[in-house]
Design brief:
The chain is an alpha+beta fold and about 425 residues long. It has 6 helices and 24 strands. It is elongated.
């Protein structure tokens, strides 16, 4: 038995007009809209002073946005469906697959106060089953003249095609560097040097740096067992004048100074431009390699601390005692794996972490990008061994380490995961 095609006000989706998005996004630009409207030789005005159209209400049902509009004394409905790479639009008057009518054009233009409109908030593929008023994945809460769409708590990691999932194409392992004399600890003096793991929340716009190491000068207690006070962060060789340094500390200091030059995250006032993203990605990888060089040297240091900075502007001057937490680093390699659960019409993919075969639990309070720690031992940090590893951990840390994937998308977007990592199906 053949199923009936989806129809909106008696019109199938195949008769909606298609408008292209910017590549890799759900963004429609006004310049594109105007160019298409002019090219159709429309009888209505296309330009900087459109006719005064009022949007009276919005509604969202089964993945379709309906905009009720008023133009002069006339009323109409404009229907908008968001697809992977294009916008489908129609109206209750005249728009079809060959013609972009006046109501549809003016409604889209009214939604582009900044010269564009991002339709991502209306993009919910596979989330609305035909004939069902309610979605399994999202809640649509109606308000006077509008609505809000929120993911249900169970689906906080729902994946949609086009979401920023890391490209799992090739896993290049960075060989772990080791020192032959790994047990030779640095000697202490009443005034000596230690090393600080400066970290912050990368999801916060103002937290503008990647995790890096910075030396500090401290004064020890009488028996040289603990830190009595912190004197200053070390930013260059002059900041350690008069302090006796081992060759390993001199090398580690050089690595720290190089890290500081790469740590700042670049931002653009106009959004994340490709060239800005390329710089950030290159700096990430360079920092990761420096962490790999630093790790065996850190194992020889008597004092290593953790500092949650809340931004690079706070890594300056004298460390505050209450903010500096003792931490340790391990040479053991953390191993990533996945559990894939079949939940009927979707899969749930959960990221797991093991060290020496023992299952650990990610500490969600302290994502460290290149480094991970266990919820039970948050003071002990492990360095990941591949760029792909830290990008996956960073992505999954934002969704409680699990994503939900409609089955129709799993093979296209997650096939590479099973090529490079162990995936246990349950």
């Amino acid at each position: 038995m053949m199923t009936k095609p989806i129809t909106i006000a008696g019109k199938p989706l195949s008769r909606f007009y298609q408008l292209p998005f910017e590549k890799g996004s759900r963004v429609l630009k006004l310049a594109v809209l105007d160019q298409i409207a002019i090219g159709l030789h429309s009888t209505f005005s296309v330009g900087k002073k459109p006719e005064p159209l009022a949007i009276t209400s919005l509604s969202f049902d089964q993945g379709l946005l309906t905009v009720n509009v008023k133009l002069g004394g006339e009323e109409a409905k404009v229907y908008i469906a968001v697809e992977y790479d294009c916008l489908l639009v129609s109206c209750s008057v005249d728009t079809d697959e060959t013609y972009l009518g006046r109501y549809a054009y003016l409604t889209l233009r009214a939604m582009m106060r900044s010269g564009y409109c991002d339709f991502k908030e209306y993009y919910w593929p596979e989330c609305f089953a035909l004939g069902n008023k309610r979605s399994r994945y999202v809640d649509v809460v109606k308000k006077p003249g509008s609505f809000t769409i929120t993911l249900k708590k169970k689906f906080s990691g729902l994946f949609r095609p086009g979401d920023d999932f890391p490209a799992v194409t090739e896993r290049v392992v960075l060989p772990r560097e080791r020192l032959l004399d790994k047990y030779a600890m640095a000697r202490l003096a009443p005034v000596s040097i230690g090393y600080c793991f400066a970290n912050t929340d990368l999801q916060n716009f103002h937290s503008n740096h990647y995790p890096f190491l910075i030396p500090y000068v401290f004064s020890a207690t009488a028996y040289l067992k603990t830190v009595k006070s912190f004197k200053r962060f070390v930013f260059n060789a002059n900041d350690v004048d008069g302090i006796s340094l081992s060759p390993q500390q001199q090398e580690l200091n050089s690595i720290c100074f190089a890290m500081k030059q790469l740590a700042a995250i670049r931002f653009s006032a106009n959004g994340n431009l490709p060239e800005i993203n390329a710089i950030n990605d290159a700096n990430q990888l360079a920092l990761f390699k420096l962490w790999n060089k630093a790790l065996p040297l850190l194992m020889q240091q008597r004092f290593t601390h953790y500092f949650y900075s809340y931004g690079l502007r706070n890594v300056t001057g004298k460390p505050v005692m209450r903010d500096m937490k003792l931490v340790e680093f391990s040479m053991e390699v953390p191993v990533l794996s996945f559990v894939l659960k079949d939940e009927g019409d979707y899969y749930e993919l959960e990221l797991k972490l093991k060290v020496k075969g023992k299952l650990l639990h990610f500490n969600t309070d302290k994502p460290g990008l290149f480094l991970v720690c266990d919820r039970v031992k948050p003071y002990l940090w492990y360095l990941l061994e591949a760029e792909m590893d830290y990008k996956l951990v960073w992505f999954f840390s934002k969704v409680n380490f699990r994503v939900q994937v409609p089955k129709g998308y799993y093979q296209d977007f997650f096939e590479g995961v099973e090529r490079w990592y162990e995936v246990k199906r349950v």
